[in-house]
Amino acid sequence: MRFEPAATRLTPRLPNPGPLRCGPGVATGMRWLIEDTLQRLRDSGLPLHRRLVHAGDTVYRCGEAFRELHVLHSGFFKVVTVTADGREQVVGLHFKGDWLGFDGIAAGHYTCDAVALDVGEVWSLDYEALLALSVSEPGLTGMLHAAMSRQMARERESILSLCTLSADARVADFLRQWVEALDKRGLRTDRITLCLSRAEIGNFLGMTLESVSRALSRLAREGVIDFAEKGRRHVRIPDPGAINAYIERSLAQASAALQ
Amino acid sequence: MRFEPAATRLTPRLPNPGPLRCGPGVATGMRWLIEDTLQRLRDSGLPLHRRLVHAGDTVYRCGEAFRELHVLHSGFFKVVTVTADGREQVVGLHFKGDWLGFDGIAAGHYTCDAVALDVGEVWSLDYEALLALSVSEPGLTGMLHAAMSRQMARERESILSLCTLSADARVADFLRQWVEALDKRGLRTDRITLCLSRAEIGNFLGMTLESVSRALSRLAREGVIDFAEKGRRHVRIPDPGAINAYIERSLAQASAALQ
DNA sequence: CGGGCCGTTGACCACATTCAACGCGTGTGG
DNA sequence: CCACACGCGTTGAATGTGGTCAACGGCCCG
Questions:
Q1: What is the spatial distance, in angstroms and rounded to an integer, between the CA atom of A180 and the C1' atom of D25?
Q2: How many folded domains does chain B comprise?
Q3: What is the domain range of residue A61?
């Protein structure tokens, strides 16, 4: 049995016309979509600037003139903003098939740093050339817009997680996102390697590194995850469903508090 | 004198090549950009479906088939997601000149509700028609992409605020954003009307309505804001700079705690 | 060996949430 | 007309989650 959430309904008097509600849909065809994106870029005839990166390398830096968009062929990447007062914030994590650099379009220069977290390959392509080719190749535009739309959806998911989940649930949700991303790309999800430090995870989730560590320990104690013998960045996920169950449980506990 | 933030540096060993750091740039020409957007849409010859809305009216609803993008001509709007488990989250606030509906591009249907907070006017235009016209009118594509890019920047700013600021500072930052948005649109910023309830503000900022109320009271006590005689949604802002000062002060206090 | 860096854990504390009571304006029905 | 309920906002007191500070262990590298 599920109770009303504690917060007052925000749009109470709006008559809800039918069951249009929906959650974030998990596209099972995502894997093909990503391969298709990469294939179409190869086939497009656009000059692709391929680049190998190592952990710590930047794809682009805040302030650099915007000319190129970047499509990730492999690896793991973080996008970081640095404010004028020195706050540093991880605002996104990115994987194979994702596009980077959209933040530069409006400003004319990049407004974030994009940093590789592991070895990987980046395909960079000239934005103007892409636009020019899009005129004769309308599918490219659709692909680009869909990528931007998906990115916005992910950022909204981050906001949702930050606003509605407890620290523990946020860490669990972070793992869920990571596993889901791997799954969509056809990578194994039973043994994963977080290529982020506890401090980076905490920064991304709006909490301290100690809280991340404690949350992971609790998750391990409850059997949701399992630390492999060597290294505390390697995590076994016996059952991906258990992560969702954990998140839902912590939500249910919150509402159970009101009897 | 400014101290290192409490959190460990996330990219410590990366040699920082020069002073490329930058904050979110405040475009002073924003007002013209917005008018220009609306003008170009009028001139484009695209069939614009103009619609008047009242507080509570939806521009679109989650689940509806995506066909149109919407440009706001006047008014105030919120974008809300509802999760499968019933959590409701305000993920964005929007003003004149903003575009709505990008979330529908990737999924083929909208994944959020867009709701008017006050009377306003929305211009809706067919997405496919826009794409078709963009082929002969390349400026339209640039305009569209810039709008999407700007929206992503704003979402990242929300994440930044949620992750790095205390509850009080978050409320102050919310006011700052609101005032900045009005300023960019040439509206008066010394007397503003929040057309959101405390519950909605709290939801958007990841805190409870009580905390919002307390934060606003504290801001008033410190003279940063001033409640007009009638109604607690009407706020006087004697000096917009004081809001920034308040946010910086609360950041400085946090780092001053470490001696 | 010593010194970083990373991760974990414990003790303490503060900030934000929870719960409750109250004031105010508004709309509604006796 | 007043009584009443209801939504919205404010404020106080108690509680608890997550932050702060500190100590410790493992690992890698000079």
A1: 33
A2: 2
A3: 29-163
